[in-house]
Amino acid sequence: MNLGLVGGASWKAPTKASEDTRHFSRASSGSAVSPDVPVPAVLYHRITATCVRDVVLGKSQILLTQVDVTEQVCRERELQELVFAEEKLLESVFPRHVIEEMTKRVITLKPIRHHRHMATYHEQVTILFADLVGFTTMSEMMAPEEVMLLLNRLYSALDDLLDICGVYKVETIGDCYVVAGGLMQKDEDNFQAVRKASAGVCPANATSTMVFAKAMLLEAAKMTHPRTNKPLQMRVGMHTGPVMSGVVGTRMPRFCLFGDSINTASRMEGTSKPGCIHVSAATHTLLQHGDQWEATGGVHVKGKGLMETYLWFPLEPGHQPNTVLECTKSSS
C-alpha cells in the first residue's frame, strides 16, 4: 500500500518513477542528507504501508516505512542519459539496422560471423571521393598535431553540410573524405537507415552529391595553409553505380561500401584537377547540364581504359557562389 508523506513535505504527482515512488519538494529542514552533499532540487522517497497486528492491543495497525531513494533514482537517470548518449554516438557511426543486429549479437553473446543480415544491395548510388591538394608536402612541413587539427577543422565544417545537402559520410582515410548520395534515408523514428531496394532509386542522388561537392570546395577555400597562408584546395571525383553496403570483420567493425563503383569514383578523384569536380559519364547524365562542364575527351583510368568523363570548373573569381544555398540553386 502506498501512502502520502507526512511531516511538512508537499507531494507532486509521479512522472516516470516506479509505482511506489513519489516526488516531494523539500519543505522542512529535516533531512537525512549530509549538509556537505548538495541537495537535489527534487527528492525521491519510497513509502511502504504494511498492515500488522499489535499482539498487545489485539488490533491491526499500519506500519509506515519511509526510505530516501533520491540517490538511486538519480543514478538510474544518469544511466539512462548515458545509454541515450551511447545510442546517439552509435547512430552517427552505423545505420539503424546495423546497430540492432550488433546489439542482438551482444545480448545473445553470439559472435558476428554471418554479415548477410547487415548487407544491402543498392542499384544506384553516387560516390564522392575528395582529398586535399598537396597534402603530402603539407604534412612534411607541419607537426603531426597541426595536421590533425587542420583536418579536424576542415572535416568538422564538411560534417555540418552533410544533412543540409542530404548525403551520407562513409569514411575518412587520412585527407580523403568519402561521401555517398542516395544511400540513406530517415526512417519513421528519424534514424539513419539504408535505402532499401523496395524504395527504388533516389532520383536526386547525383544532384545532392554535386551540391555537397561544390560546398566542400567553398569550405576548403575559406581555410588557409598554416605555413603559406594560401587557401586550401580540394580535388573531387564522382561516379554513380551499384554498390553493396555492409559490415565485414569482427574487430573494430565499420559500415562500408563495396563494388567497382567505389574504385571508379576513386579514379575520378585521382585524375581530377585542383578546385574542380571530375565525374564519370554515368554521373554526368544525371546532372543538370547548364553548369560549367567541360568534356575531357576521355581519360585513361587504371583498370578501365579510356573513360568518357566531364570536368566541372568554378566560375571566374567574383562570380563564385559563397553559400551552400547558392550552390543548391545553381544545381537545381
Short description:
The protein is of the alpha+beta class and 332 residues long. The protein is 31% helix and 29% strand.
Could you name the key traits of this structure?
single chain, 332 residues, alpha+beta, eight-stranded mixed sheet, four-stranded antiparallel sheet, 8 helices, 16 strands, disordered C terminus
Characterization of this structure:
With 332 residues, the chain is an alpha+beta fold. It has 8 helices and 16 strands. The chain has helices spanning 70-91, 96-108, 135-141, 144-165, 205-221, 260-270, 281-284, 324-331; strands at residues 10-12, 21-25, 43-54, 59-68, 120-132, 168-173, 176-181, 184-186, 192-194, 234-247, 255-258, 277-280, 293-295, 299-301, 305-307, 309-312. The strands form 4 sheets. Strands 5, 6, 7, 10, 11, 12, 13 and 16 form an 8-stranded mixed sheet that branches. Helix 4 packs antiparallel against helix 5 and helix 5 packs antiparallel against helix 8 (324-331). It is elongated, with a radius of gyration of 30 Å. The N and C termini lie far apart (66 Å).
